[in-house]
Amino acid sequence: MLVWKKISPLSLFILLIPILLLVKKSSRKMEQMMTWPKSWDQLQEERKAKVAEVCAKYNEKTSLPINYGRFFYSPQKDLMMCSTAKGGSTTFFLTTFTQILEGEDYWAGEEPVGGFNFKIMLDRKVKAVNALKNQTLIRERIHHEDTITFTVVRHPFERLVSAYRHKTFEKNEGLGKLTFPEFLQQIVIKESSSCSSTNLSCMNLHWKPFLNNCSPCSLNYTVIVKVETFNEDRMGIHKLVGLPYKDTGHYHDLTKILNTTKSTEDWTKSLFENVSMEVKQQLQDIYKYDFEMFDYDPFLY
What we know:
The chain is mainly α.
């Protein structure tokens, strides 16, 4: 005890430094263990559990009739997709489903800078769509326990930006010279308001909410694909149906088509800087269930 009394506070602190560093290192290890990457199966179960939670929370407001016309089915692999515009459906048509139709060795290749030849891409997609749209089979198999069902989702604001850029920069289609805020107010919000009594059936598919497009509360999807984890999720689907996976990236990517380094996230941040808080609030209301159901932050942009 006499020895400790002679040690100054500074000396005592110096003696304790190795112990403090050891504790900090142990804490860091514990933190790393707690944030260890989850398996793909775990991630899918969490996504589906979140959807089920939100469906139960809002019940009647989210239990919508199934729009069978948005579903496409491959009997060869018992694989069914609900197609969502500006969510990655084109990539699935041109890769996974075309590979099923053409044979396991088929590989479409990566999209070149400037994009694929539009006619060739369209012909391939139409061929796949026509082979997969048997409504009788879709209605028979949609709730079958052996059918692998999936859909693709993304942040609602990023989807709006992707749709706007696609229809103005690439196709110059239907929007005239509307600025992005004008597009949101005069097209998206206006359509939502005028369609509110009809399950938003008259909203353009490129910005209709996921809830109203693929009825996630009326169908227990096997897989929920997110654009943020697109390749990993597509690989997981290939494993489920026993189809060799060939990496191609995400098709119809405006970054490649327009040969720009700005990602959709960059464009979303930039374009939403000029959107008023009032308009953002209206959009948050329109896509309320999408934000909550698929765990996207409505205040990210």
